[in-house]
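ok so heres the complex, four chains, lmk if somethin looks off
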Amino acid sequence: MMIKIALLGCGRIGKMHAATIVRSSRAELAVVYDPVDNAAEEVSRHFGCAMAKSAEEAIAASDAVLIATSTATHSDLIEAAAKAGKAVFCEKPIDLSLERVAACRKAIAGFDRPIQIGFNRRFDPGHRAARDAVRSGEVGELQQVIITSRDPGLASREYLAVSGGIFKDMTIHDFDLARFMLAEEPVEVFATGSTLIDPTLAQLNDVDSTMVIMRTASGKLCHINNSRAAVYGYDQRVELFGSKGMVISGNRKAHELERFTARTTGVGEPYLNFFIERYEEAFALGLQSFLKCVEENTVPDATFDDGEKSLALAEAANLSLAEGRFVKVAEVTR
Amino acid sequence: MMIKIALLGCGRIGKMHAATIVRSSRAELAVVYDPVDNAAEEVSRHFGCAMAKSAEEAIAASDAVLIATSTATHSDLIEAAAKAGKAVFCEKPIDLSLERVAACRKAIAGFDRPIQIGFNRRFDPGHRAARDAVRSGEVGELQQVIITSRDPGLASREYLAVSGGIFKDMTIHDFDLARFMLAEEPVEVFATGSTLIDPTLAQLNDVDSTMVIMRTASGKLCHINNSRAAVYGYDQRVELFGSKGMVISGNRKAHELERFTARTTGVGEPYLNFFIERYEEAFALGLQSFLKCVEENTVPDATFDDGEKSLALAEAANLSLAEGRFVKVAEVTR
Amino acid sequence: MMIKIALLGCGRIGKMHAATIVRSSRAELAVVYDPVDNAAEEVSRHFGCAMAKSAEEAIAASDAVLIATSTATHSDLIEAAAKAGKAVFCEKPIDLSLERVAACRKAIAGFDRPIQIGFNRRFDPGHRAARDAVRSGEVGELQQVIITSRDPGLASREYLAVSGGIFKDMTIHDFDLARFMLAEEPVEVFATGSTLIDPTLAQLNDVDSTMVIMRTASGKLCHINNSRAAVYGYDQRVELFGSKGMVISGNRKAHELERFTARTTGVGEPYLNFFIERYEEAFALGLQSFLKCVEENTVPDATFDDGEKSLALAEAANLSLAEGRFVKVAEVTR
Amino acid sequence: MMIKIALLGCGRIGKMHAATIVRSSRAELAVVYDPVDNAAEEVSRHFGCAMAKSAEEAIAASDAVLIATSTATHSDLIEAAAKAGKAVFCEKPIDLSLERVAACRKAIAGFDRPIQIGFNRRFDPGHRAARDAVRSGEVGELQQVIITSRDPGLASREYLAVSGGIFKDMTIHDFDLARFMLAEEPVEVFATGSTLIDPTLAQLNDVDSTMVIMRTASGKLCHINNSRAAVYGYDQRVELFGSKGMVISGNRKAHELERFTARTTGVGEPYLNFFIERYEEAFALGLQSFLKCVEENTVPDATFDDGEKSLALAEAANLSLAEGRFVKVAEVTR
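and the predicted structre for the whole thing:
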């Protein structure tokens, strides 16, 4: 029996999820809703599914709810879906405010259906194989994690203005990936940043280039570097260094053509351009994993708790950036 | 309007084509036929399409016919589809006999709908980018083509016994790829081979390891090497060497994880295992290209003529292997 | 005319310098001195050069002095050589104490012969090409520098006990390399570390695994990670990321053999094992550069000032590690 | 005790050998001779060694003779050195005529000092590691050898006119390398070629682009491709394919810088330009191996017999090119 999915939010990421759902053999796109009618209509027409007049109506008509609306509405919709007893897949972040997330957590206490947060990178085959190499003991005791994560180009001013800042919008993926790899909570966070790409970002009290160091209780170290604009493309690397070896999950290209000229050798193609291309498999595998959880009523690989903990790291990073010190995560979660 | 496709032949490759058709937004799998009822039933049930009692019935119910039956039936079915005025996508080779192919060509003379032969590799993004680099002048005058093509393991005895020998079964893909890259007909062929993997193949008058050299009228040189069993996986490389540079279309892996141990560095994952995985994109792009030709009634990228010419190269290779000399292709096509 | 060199210090690094001098066509190893007679005798016999009874005697018999003694003696010997008017090549660090280095600087004020500090990595062809790519504008505005620097195995307890700690002993090379690449002074330093390899290092108040972030006045960001023990070998990578592109200077292997097995592809050889192998060319080029400066009385590429500034960064790192905050370099240099 | 070497021939390759000898700790360049006085004088002055008036005088003053004169004089000088009882290192080929080589072999019958032929590639660390992987059983039964060997640019007309043709001048290195890898004699040779780089080479009855296939008695297959002009540099690859795996000895670069731009990734440096740079280590290791043989009076790794057998393969290739057939090596050695 196909799982009926209600898609809330029909923007860029919503459309991508719609296409992934449609390709799945276990789910159907039952209904869509978007406060902007045109957006919902377009998806409804293209994929031949129903269109609800409200989020509530969409939720009611579904087995599971996929929340891809603007961040500010995520918590309300999670609560509404939970109240209706529907499984939830919610895009990251749950909210920009740790307080709101904590309140949401309390509001849905006792809810026993799966809630998965959209940390797609956990499902990327390369990143997952890296994690598995750690879990299997292949790299020995994990000592250092290095995450390089750079976008191919600066997002629009409109997007950035409501993004919540680089740590909650962009680095949050890396915070989650770090936790996934470390298998241990970071307890201290240092973060700094600069406006090297667009100096006017300072007006938004935001930065476009960041470097982070985190430390776990047992002393494991993790570095993250971010840039909003890598001209050579979307750069997504994870390096795991341990007592018995190292694994690196590298970038992907559309194909393996190499060029050799009078001045160069082994010239490779550009990297897959952005998250929808680079993490296409990850999105599909993440949805499959969610559907399995829905079918079997088990706990997803990226939980509400993961969403909350990554946000706490982002909050700690903001505090560190402001105060120039190694911030204890407990300071922001008390 | 969706193009209705009749799938003839529901074996391994037929099933793969069925899945590709179903994923396409321009075609529908209208009907399937297989002399073995069970095979057709399985595909019919899985993809929810009709099941014909005969090839003729299937052809009649379609806009285009995809022939994935055993090689011996290809020509008859091409003729039947052509007679019915339906576009044709036929798996390689058209037939094991050049005479039969020539007869088929005459039988369908004047047929004005697209016929595409299943030379999937032409549609592989890497190989195509390599060809484009030649066409654009990037490598200058093309001088040498080197094709490495090795299967991950020996096929079954049953398969090999009716395969027509390595040149018509396996190398034929490389002969076609060579022609695609050279953009000029090879006029001479030298081929040799050995039974290094399974000595009993000599009983089938076949070899499992081959090396070929071809030369075009203008002197361009092309080398092909084949093995029926590369333990490290399906090895598919194309190197194009010219006066201004070189391009190499290399192997693909499931992801880009590299491992570093006490004794090794940069250890990569195995290659995608076999043609269905390695050329998944190529099969999809090849079908899309065919559908476009059907819609616009244009000439496909891999024509009946391409099928015939590659078979002639295979025939010349057989003669060369037998006589130990550089065989003129004209000797076998007269 | 050959430049007569006095080698002070005949330990592992001294012997390596002796061999480099002997291979040079512009210099001769005139005389050696080591407080341990046996060590000096061995080098003297092996290379057929004179052996002095004191550092002063060796200095007097030379055109230039190469100081490869224990760190504690560096400043005294620099002062002695300067007093004698001889050019100086001194191994890093100048001293473990910033005060002593400042005093040395004052003591040799007005000295007008070349003093080069042994920051060999500046002369590595790959690292230098990376730097040149920045200088030429190829990567645009430099925004991020990532230095990975890991030793193949923990040094002896005796060595570590007098090393001055990881930042002054090991990271100092990376601090210098960072300054070389950034072409701008870091103004703030954050450092943390752990004893993940040998917990007993805590007894020495030292760490074996570190991560550092530095920031320049214009906002450029630099990350350094260090480990005392990478089982896969000496890991030396420099990544320079800018507005127009990125360059990465990677690791080197003894040769380019790749292995392919039933489970792996592209398996590479181990990296060159340690600094004497990995930076063999750099040591030779560094010496040549120094000899050119001696001949032409010009300023070396790695000056006394570079030695002092790198030590200041190490001192700031120590303070940051102790206090868990972003330390201004000016705090330690006041 | 240092081995006194007489260098006969002071051209480009002679000078390179002189520099290699001078760097060795086991040999000294005792005396040089060249029919062109200026050439000998230059080397004599530069390396501070004696200069003989005749080859005989040079031979007499030595322990071992290094023959780097023009090919036509090699056999005479080998005979002269053998007569004088001196060990011999002779550049390839021994002679352009198999008859002359056979006569030389008879003339020196019974000579019991080492004779090494200048097949430098056998001593390249990467190629040797590839061979060792075969010998150790790592690749299982060797089945296919693929040698790519392309010069960075066409030699001068003067050089080519006396080179003896591409097979005896250039491919002879690859014939030797093939024998080194196969550990079994090729018994059949097919060769073809074209003038794709300089059509006027046809006037010299020569080609600039070749492809060869050889087969051993047990059925092992070997392909060689050559070009006189690869714009991207000196291309030297050896691929060994067997029942348990594959090894590839690849090209070398001056350093491991990779560049990433708005349109490309992983852009590598050019390959080391030509044989003197690419095989610098191989030349040094080959000389060391020879000196060890001289000291211990053992058989070198590249013998007179190897020189003769590679020439026979070149002769068979010439016959194959002329007659367009798989030539038995026995046809040319009878």
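quick notes: Chain B touches chain A through 27 residues (CB under 8 Å). thats all i got rn
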